[in-house]
Design goal:
heterodimer, A: alpha+beta, 9-stranded mixed β-sheet, 5-stranded antiparallel β-sheet, B: 1136 residues, alpha+beta, 6-stranded antiparallel β-sheet, 47 helices, 56% helix, 9% strand, protein transport (chain B), golgi apparatus (chain B)
Amino acid sequence: MCFQQKMIHSLFLINCSGDIFLEKHWKSVVSQSVCDYFFEAQEKAIDVENVPPVISTPHHYLISIYRDKIFFVSVIQTEVPPLFVIEFLHRVADTFQDYFGECSETAIKDNVVIVYELLEEMLDNGFPLATESNILKELIKPPTILRSVVNSITGSSNVGDTLPTGQLSNIPWRRAGVKYTNNEAYFDVIEEIDAIIDKSGSTVFAEIQGVIDSCIKLSGMPDLSLSFMNPRLLDDVSFHPCIRFKRWESERVLSFIPPDGNFRLISYRVSSQNLVAIPVYVKHLISFKENSSSGRFDVTIGPKQNMGKTVEGVVMTVHMPKAVLNMNLTATQGSYTFDPVTKVLAWDVGKITPQKLPNLKGIVNLQSGAPKPEENPSLNIQFKIQQLAISGLKVNRLDMYGEKYKPFKGVKYITKAGKFQVRT
Amino acid sequence: MLSLPPVQKLLRPKSVVGSDVAKEVTSPVLATEAGPPTCYSALRADELRPLAAPKDEGAASTGQPPRHDDLKEMLDSNKDSLKLEAMKRIVAMIAWGKNASDLFPAVVKNVACKNIEVKKLVYVYLVRYAEEQQDLALLSISTFQRGLKDPNQLIRASALRVLSSIRVPIIVPIMMLAIKEAASDMSPYVRKTAAHAIPKLYSLDSDQKDQLIEVIEKLLADKTTLVAGSVVMAFEEVCPERIDLIHKNYRKLCNLLIDVEEWGQVVIINMLTRYARTQFLSPNQNESLLEESAEKAFYGSEEEDTKDAKAEAASLAKRKPYVMDPDHRLLLRNTKPLLQSRNAAVVMAVAQLYFHLAPKAEVGVIAKALVRLLRSHSEVQYVVLQNVATMSIKRRGMFEPYLKSFYIRSTDPTQIKILKLEVLTNLANETNISTILREFQTYIRSMDKDFVAATIQAIGRCATNIGKVRDTCLNGLVQLLSNRDELVVAESVVVIKKLLQMQPAQHSEIIKHMAKLTDNIQVPMARASILWLIGEYCEHVPKIAPDVLRKMAKSFTNEEDIVKLQVINLAAKLYLTNSKQSKLLTQYVLNLAKYDQNYDIRDRARFIRQLIVPTEKSGALNKYAKKLFLAQKPAPILESSFKDRDHFQLGSLSHLLNAKAVGYQELPDWPDEAPDPSVRNVEVPEWTKCTSREKRKDKVEKPFYSDSEGESGPTESADSEPESDSEESGSSSSSGTSSSSSEEEDEEEEEGGSEEQSEDKEGEEEEEEKRKKKKEKGGPRKASPRSVGSEEEEEAEGKKVKKAAGPQGKKGHAETSSEEASASESSSSGSDSGTEAPTVVEAKRRKVIPSSKAGPKEISLLDLDDFTPPPPQPVPSSSIISTSLVTDLEGLTLTDTSLAPALLSPAFGAVRTYELLHRMAGEGLSVEYCFSRRPFPGDPHMVAVQIQISNNTDAEVKSLRVSEPKLLAGMRIQEFPEIESLAPGDTASVVMGIDFCDSTQAANFQLCTHTRHFYVSIQPPVGELMAPVFMSENEFRKEQGKLTGMSEITEKLTLPEKCRSDHAIVQQVTSAANVGRVPCGADNEYRFAAKTVTSGSLVLITLEWREGAAAQLTVNSEKMVIGTMLVKDIIQALAQ
């Protein structure tokens, strides 16, 4: 007999200590021992981040992702686009996150039945079936404390007793019969600055990664259009399937029937570098003296081009070289910690006030006898600026068609540091 | 008949007493059932009960692990909450990978449980363990078989899904039938499930391939987005080689693509990539020449450049100009928007499609999207970077603008860093090398030593590829030789060695420097490299080389093997060039090597000694030793490990592993000659042709798709409003795309436009002819139920597009949109508008159903409940659960191939069509009817009559309805909803229900149009007044025993030649009457059972086939009239 079986065969969930705590097979059962190949690769990789996502074994291929301290290892038998599997596994993890509030081992173990029901619906014979959260939530209700109490009293269940209408309609992301007393639509424009700043303070690379996350609680079948003051700013956009692509192409208007609840409407990129204003600067002096087993560390963070907003939630993390034993520093603002095991220095600065710039200064103790570290660590900076989209993107208006009521509409802007790195 | 409730009643008191007892009692019952089927079928109900008792003790001794007893008890309880709790615990066990297979009998009993969650969990269990417990798994099958007939599409779909997931080879025929039937289901969702089931069945039994291909072919023609992805997935798994099946569906798939769900998109795009490679010509065939000249021009003078260009132009002119097939363009155009998908797999699929199919100039568009994916999860980055690495070798220019996006952060995982480095190296050229080298300098100081090593190699590659920077790189690397980290130094040495080989003469200083390093460097590879360098270029460092050898001889025994080999090598080379100083050293080294533990080294020593030291025995080779050892060696070429990886389809697993994965479909090379493009022409029915002509004249901008979507709006209750809105947006936006696309295609259109137009017209004429032929064929085809359905669809679709065409014509303005675009649009419009067709038909159906339709029945997806029985399963009112376990089992034991059709689908046999109103009598309106043999949804006592009305007049027929029925007492009629209008040439299909009161009296009524009334009557054949019943042989005998005497009619008959096979007999009987087959132990006996629709009286048919042609037919029924008529009908049917 010919067994040509494609797509995802089995799924194993493995925690960091190497225990397989959940397995699910969509076809014939594959023995747990197949995971040994994975463990072997994991051991070789040393770091969890470096486990290759695709491993070839004599009879199977293992494609895995690492999310929230869990490895999702899927077993594949034949050719399949690896991204297809990876994307799906992330969708599974997203769904768990969505259902249980966190995608942790405990949450999955506590809700093992729901997890199983979800996996059953999401994949049929290894091929994705229902991955839209709106449909899934109609089929299987997410657990809440209240419901579990009610269930235990009334004996009712988590399995939805209504038909997943969305699955049948041509807008599968929205369920039918949505009703709210307060009709609200919120949009969060979140922009992250990815940047590499070199030693001298000049920008090597910078771009803005933006997303618009939405929370739509509108009754019925609203048809929304969202327009921007300056849509040409958006360089490269990816859309939620609900968005009518042609409308965007021709008019640069986001027109869509939204899913119910929280979802990511678009993500976009603003990549031309001169558009990217870097809101902070860092003055740093990190040096290790030859043969003295000590070094100097002096870092100051200051605001720059912040358009009148305060930079807050500033945190700096530094992976110090292995030779560093300890650090004796004083911070003019905030507090710092140094973990001598992982060699990570974390400085929680808080808000930057231009009058008095935060500074962290002191002595680095090195392992005596060890050669002075050649490399200087890079500084990873996090920050947040409320009520500002650094690219200058502005929502113009939101119109709703198809329903009579007047919804409450809200837009929030926020800028954050993404992968923001200062080389020293 | 044995029904389960008595057994359970019997057991329940015991099970309360102790869990052990419960287990003991239940298991033997089930164990017997699991036994050989034939043996069980012979058992009578009364035999079974005593059987259960003695086995009790036996079960106790065999004993299953006791820890599951509590679970079994809970499963046997009649409280859903206990069952649920038990199932939850069992599922948790499965999730943990614990074996729960011994609970199978206890669990499978609950397959018909009313509680949805219990049922769902039972399914989970069943699918997991069915393969291991095949016999027991059969118990559940009939539940699903019933589910397959449920009026609710979601229940049908879910039944099919579970049924097809049970990997039990015995049920292959049942699955096959179920899939076939579901493939022609009204509901696109059920058809989608059918498509999903195909690969499952195929993996279970690959012998079914041919039949499955038929189903796939049918489903490929489906016009809904819901089905498209799933059926292409099935196609890819079952028959990827049957590329011919795609031709007719190609344009439709291209047009539907954007609306298909994400996962389906990936599969379709990958398949279309392969398809396009076999059907179209390479868009770069001319450019490959251009490319060469361009490369030359890069270094050449300007003059040369222009000359080249001229020559090139001349040679191009000679060749046939390349014109892209419009279908090729269609694919590229329709996939492009998907680059904006949020799904990385979709973006990657489009990217590889463009990489493999698009003209070189257009491939660039994918770079941006791929770079965007680099922001995603690290696993996604990993895969994308691998593909970018391959692409960046072939098409460097594409990613150059995004160079900085590949810059490395110290926080990236090492495997990502190394891949980014690979891409950066591939992108390096003379203009950007300085930037890249500056970036590399930062990397060299990283803490991640593996990454530093990779960076050094990257620098080496840049140096070999770009001559200009070779010296700079070399100097930089030499500086690294004083690095404190040994790994860095070692890697540098290896790379320097490779670089030096390119121009050794100028670098004796570096060689000297490296010779000094032998004291410090411990990394074997680096030591070996240095030794090789010194040996190879010993003439450049004549003083140092013997000294190095001296040191090495001293430490020889402590060296690694690769170092030892190089020591021998160095010794040999020195002996040949400078034997005075090194003779003794060489002999010493060779002696040491002679007694080495490693045989490679011993061999090498022996070999070299013979070769270089002249002895009496040594042969002629001695003379050539110097030439052998000191020959000019070509410099190694440092090239990317991603070179030539693009012979694997990008984005595939094989590409990632750089090895052919199981089941990989080779991406074919472009054909030299394009295959006939007309194979993709779809027969365009007349209506589209008109509109497309109109369009050609008027150049209407509004695309069909959105228009018809709008038209269909009102039929979709919930979605109607937004849909019509989307129509507006679609139409307005389409202008934008068409204009943008026309820009792109201007060139091609100028060349190919006129040709195409004439071609198109020809094509249309052909199609017209074909269509006429098809129409003629259409008549006889109607006999089969499936063709009725499909025509229904076609017609519905036709009607809709007509509607759509109206406003379009009016709106038309003279405009010059691309010829090709309109051509493709017109072809697509047919298929697109069809998307909605089934839903419309369904909507109509829904309207037919009276509003009183039981609400609760529709509640759940998984409610396979048959206890509120749909009409064809009349159950004796006394034994409610009789249809459950035991009965199922009895039915099942005999489920062999020939039996299956009757069991499964009464509606499957040939359905005859009768004429209600002839075209002449109806003044152009012709009406036909047939008995669909499906339960009439509104009322179980009614016979469903499917009516097909065709308008053959030139005018629209309005308000078609039924009026003034003249019925005998007791007869009732459920009219079909008024058809508001029927356009000329259109056909509508409706269902009405008639309660004939179990008589063959005709139902008379008037069929009214807005102008005319026609008197018509429907007279049912007696065989249509009943619905099949599923019963066991025992039941059958029992019931037959009650219906003797007056109720029994026996007739003798002779079977004609062609009716002497099992198959033929069953088919003839089931075509004559709507009956279900009853399993039967004897070989030459056939039994059928049915119930009259109105009163529910049993009709039992027995056909005994004696020797030769003789046979005896017995019909038992308390309705004597029906019995007599049925005998007549069946004999007539068999005699035919």
